[in-house]
Amino acid sequence: MTVIKKPSVKPASVLALILGGGQGSRLFPLTKERSKPAVPLAGKYRLVDIPISNCINSGIKRIYLLTQFNSASLHRHMSQSYKFDHFTSGFVEILAAEQTLTNTSWYQGTADAVRKNIVHFLNNDFEYVLILSGDQLYRMDFRRMLAEHVETKADLTVATIPMPRASAQSLGIMQIDPERRITRFVEKPSDPAMLDSLHLLPEWYERLEIEGTSEFFLASMGIYLFNREVLLSLLNNSMADFGKHIIPTAIGTHRVFSHIFQGYWEDIGTIRSFFEANLELTSELPRFNFYDTLSPIYSRPRFLPGSKINGAEIDHAILSDGCIINHARITQSIIGLRGAVERGSQVIRSIVLGSDEYESDASILHNEATGRPRIGIGSNTRVENAIIDKNARIGNNCILTPAGKPDNMDHPLYYIRDGIVIVPKGGIIPHGTVI
Q1: Which of 24, 57, 93, 108 could form a disulfide with 36 if both were Cys (CB 3.0 to 4.6 A apart)?
Q2: What CATH number did the domain enclosing 416 receive?
């Protein structure tokens, strides 16, 4: 077991900045009406709950979230989820892109987003700045990274993770010396000769506490720990992005070190990665454990009844609070908050995000009179390899499956992305529809 080093400085001296990302086009249509950090996860959480929880569990309680696209639902989630008491200096605060007298443009990249909010950060007393992504699934104790940062007298520490060759070609790869100082950075090295020159030396594995004997490459996780003054000096230019510009430049001018993380880490950047990461949570021993009592994942507290199961068959599934499942079959799927599945229906390898409110009796009667399905999944319907966004209405006697369809297509009622059917938020699939 790896012993966590006690840092010589306290986490209270760290200011955390979570980057909310751009438009989230690769997660469309889940990002059609919400920002990427606000995309639901595991039935009852949001993507942004992961980095915030990692910070809180690491003793870091001053957190800014930078965003600019479709931020209304994210604002609502944050205001209802994270409130510290009056006797602490902790806060979780959203900073949305704004026009000022000196700047009227959108964020041009991750570094530009931080640069344009410097005036807000400098109102705080801090020694270190932790930069995080808002769309990754992992559990990390940042205190160990902080301890290594102080011990090596680093100006900047980059969190890295050992990756096999197949994955390395799509990531930013770091080359280090025996002391873990980063000497080289290559973004998405596709040339085999270039990639060969970047692999970790096996004789270093024991010293670096790397488990396994396979060929590994050190990939950047998009997690950076800066000394305050170093960050301010590196941002004193027009460079737009940390990964593409700031980090490669800093390697040649500053002490840049690698913190090697070994554990589950997934970048939730595409519909396929979102889909697979969620479905893996339904396995008996998922690589990411939401049941870890020592490092819980926090979210908005809700006052919902327990889920009601009326004669249903449930196999390797996650049911969130307030669901009603009537004589249906749920297999390797996630049913989100207030999710409803009616009699005779099957949900197979799918993610149903549930609904924001229970539909009233008056609304149900009105919709039935007009032939419109109620919120949820109707009776005798099969949903397979699909994502059903919030408040969607799926009728009776429907079949939703991507089988025999293109991997990517748009339809007035639904989308297919990465071979997965997606019914958008508030979407309606009429009774008897066959996709």
Answers
A1: 24
A2: 2.160.10.10
